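Co-fold these.
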Amino acid sequence: MTLELGGSEPQNPKLRGGTVRRYRATVEYDGTDFHGFQRQAQGERTVQETLEAALWAVTGQAVTVMGAGRTDTGVHARGQVIAFDSDWRHGEAALGRAMNANLMRDVAVKEVESVEPGFHPRFSACRRTYQYTVYNRFCRSPLLRRTSWHRRRPLVMTAMSAAGGLLVGEHDFATFGKPPTGENTVRRVFCAEWRQNGGFMEFRIEANAFLNRMARSLVGTMCQVGAGEWSVERFAVAFAAADRGQAGPTAPPQGLCLLSVGYPS
Amino acid sequence: MTLELGGSEPQNPKLRGGTVRRYRATVEYDGTDFHGFQRQAQGERTVQETLEAALWAVTGQAVTVMGAGRTDTGVHARGQVIAFDSDWRHGEAALGRAMNANLMRDVAVKEVESVEPGFHPRFSACRRTYQYTVYNRFCRSPLLRRTSWHRRRPLVMTAMSAAGGLLVGEHDFATFGKPPTGENTVRRVFCAEWRQNGGFMEFRIEANAFLNRMARSLVGTMCQVGAGEWSVERFAVAFAAADRGQAGPTAPPQGLCLLSVGYPS
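Predicted complex below.
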């Protein structure tokens, strides 16, 4: 599908004279063929740029899309939250349908609603939930390769759960990621849990916010514990050190999915 | 990954003088980027041709791969069974590893064993199990688009289960598919069951054999029943008519997966 953007310059919604509203939308995407959420300088295909192109096609306006989480290249989302301003006059459901008609099959708008003008998907958010899926068997799986991490060596769930239990509460997570400029490395984890789901091992973590690469660094390091390469004690020592150099390997992006973003009700 | 086949002509295993054995292998593939299992005259990418190219690279022999089920373009398999002859001398596990090292990421050999020379994956088989996955919600799903059929309108599981229940036993399935040349249209269905699995509706069907397109034609027609377009009675009448013209629409391939093939023990 090619967006027929035409040759005319898009208009800024604030200059058209209609009532400008802020919209919030929930977005699902298969991150495999995106260079992450955030627009890149060099014009790589990103989720943000794709959504902005769809809004341009639908509204004729150059709309800036704000996102709750800057997912990395290859990371998926079932519940990314975005916001943007528009003087669209045809209702929220019609806006969602029109956007979906202008999006490729690997990204979709699940829900659109109008919100108060001060709403910001990132700064207003109070919790994010991520899930990481590990597939633990000898042979790799063609059907699961896009959405899970294949680990050949047996992983011991009880050891990984013991490591995961240490994460809950307010801690300095400097070992597991870098903060955005100007922020500290303390985060509050509400819940961090491994569970077996059929052939999968799923790690679900809910926190007020995440450092860059934090979920994947945690999973990669916990898998060292599960594989018997690290003891739970070594994990605890590395965590307490608050030193990025002490983390284990970072798990690959395709196993990670942003499930949901929460806001104060 | 490019297979380095070199310029030399492959040898027929029977001419090399070693002990030729018949091997059986279980194969998983993501059917999205294959033009079905069976080798095509025009050199399209197929599972059979891909496996034969890997065996050529591994053994230096022109090996013909036989398959249990000729899955259509876009249909997946978790348990396709293949067989081939080779004078490979390094054991079954090493043969599986060597094949996987020469296969793209969307196909993998899960298990290899040597079998008696008369074994044929298709003619020796006594049962096949397929699963079809339907995703029933308003919005399409980017993450599920490659492995399920999105149905926007609500489907009633009880009606679909009533239709599915009619299939069990030995019946003429001419309404739902065409037989291979020279075969009749009677098949024995051992089990046909719809179940809800989270957001999915999964249909699992086990039969001695299937007509061409039979599983997808059954699912497409049962979904007419689930959507309220057809009554269960109309489904029963169309089934009893044994007339291909009476079937409902055929469900798309990406929801279908060949789970396993059974042999007399």
